[in-house]
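Hi everyone,

Forwarding the result from last night's run.
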Amino acid sequence: MSFLLLILLALVVATSEETEAEALLKWKSSLYQPGSLASWAIRNGTSPCSWYGISCDQAGNVVQISLQSSSINGTLNSLNFSSFHNLISLNLSDNILQGSIPSGISNLSKLNSLDLGTNSFGNFVPP
């Protein structure tokens, strides 16, 4: 019985990683020349935990996205914030991000550190 529970837990973690990985890759594909994110690719079962700027907890959930000064050029419109149930820190400062800050950022219920400074976002910050 406990073996079955371990297998089920591993499947849940793998599904969570895939969802986070897919969200990150979708956002990467929307960016202009995302060269600093070259490690962001699914190869032979790699998880986003080994990608540049991504940190995970022991369960394999993304808990930190730290991409300050990474020459990221684009918007946040394609980043599905609801995929990151355990994200506690998001640092995208000093990049070339523009447009508005999507209201979906409010889905980051565990977020306790947010730095979007030194970008070209509009003046509106969603509730």
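The first helix runs from residue 2 to 30.

Cheers,
N.
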